[in-house]
Amino acid sequence: SRGGGHPAGHPHPAGGSGAKSSATVSRNLNRFSTFVKSGGEAFVLGEASGFVKDGDKLCVVLGPRGPEWQENPYPFQCSIEDPTKQTKFKGMKSYIAYKLVPSHTGQQVHRRYKHFDWLYGRLAEKFPVISVPHLPEKQATGRFEEDFISKRRKGLAWWMDHMCSHPVLAQCDAFQHFLTCPSTDEKAWKQGKRKAEKDEMVGANFFLTISVPTGPGAVLDLQEVESQVDGFKAFTKKMDESALQLNHTANEFARKQVTGFKKEYQKVGHSFKCLSQAFELDQQAFSAGLNQAIAFTAEAYDTIGDLFADQPRQDLDPVMDLLALYQGHLANFPDIIHVQKGALTKVKESKRHVEEGKMELQKAEGIQERCNIISFATLAEINHFHKIRVRDFKSQMQHFLQQQILFFQKVTQKLEEALHKYDSV
């Protein structure tokens, strides 16, 4: 969607005129390529025009690790609390609504999954080089089962955390409307929704809203950008493979604990119980203490079996929830990288055209300048991804190990209790 006849509010030179520019940079013939669909190509070729309001500006700054999105000056969080079943059409149709409480307003609103879905669609279309986190998958059948609802709530909580942590997504109008529009005000909801759907700063025009550092150090070295992006591409491929592997292993391990381990421990418990029952046939008073102690040991093993079955909920499931969220991000990056690569290709092409005298230098410089903007945004996004990844995996691994330690402490405690039963035999 290219803005119509708005005054061009961007400083990009339109490129030279005259006979020379008849050999323009060739257009990408694959109309379905992400570079074309995202509007990246139109932007690089200088065809995007729209008036950028101050409120729409997105700043990339140079941080210690290179380009970064400018931090949100007013950070906030948003909790997603117990979903409730609600009905409409006098009870004919029921649905689940989640209670959202954003910390910056403190006002609770209720949103359905379809509202999340709408928002996701808008943002994925608007931001070609930002990884909009995927929503936990839609499930139509049995969608009111307790387990499914609590699992989806946890998935949405991770999603919400990633939205609030992203300097650009957190401040975007559609997301703010989603967080703050009162649930009861149907009219206001529809107005905000229409406004977001009519947003012109999407696709190619999104790049017009990005302001990048200026000055001597502010033009990125193309070769360096290319090698950083290639490095990141290799990283995401490897991370995707290992996340898949870990998810599979954790899933298997959880399944074994819930069924296998529980059964095996309870078998051991059952065998001890049979032993104590056999011993009870001896009516001697002095053997009663031993029989009770063995029966207690049997119960301890039974309990340990249950502990194993309950454990994955505490430690493995949260790890798998996190992996699911990251697999969504990793699925977004090939497209983002593709837009960046497309821009670099156009720059190389234009340089060649200048050397062959087929293009004005000014026009080629415009292409390079616009590619520079895409590079800044892409590197800022890559930086953000790594920052959040380190934060998330650190806290999740700590949680996992703390839960494992608590679990084995419970097991040890049970065994110690059983051991003490033999003291007085």
UniProtKB/TrEMBL annotation:
This protein's name: SNX18 protein
Protein family: Belongs to the sorting nexin family.
PROSITE patterns reported in the protein's UniProt record: PX
Alphabetically ordered keywords of this record: Cytoplasmic vesicle, Membrane, Protein transport, SH3 domain, Transport
GO molecular function: phosphatidylinositol binding
Species annotation: Alectura lathami (Australian brush turkey)
SUPFAM superfamilies: PX domain
GO CC terms, sorted: cytoplasmic vesicle membrane; plasma membrane
PX domain residues: 76-186
Cross-referenced InterPro entries: AH/BAR_dom_sf, PX_dom, PX_dom_sf, SNX18_PX, Sorting_nexin_WASP-bd-dom
Region (Disordered): 1-23
GO biological process: cleavage furrow formation; endocytosis; endosomal transport; plasma membrane tubulation; protein transport
Name of the gene this protein is made from: Snx18
Cell location: Cytoplasmic vesicle membrane
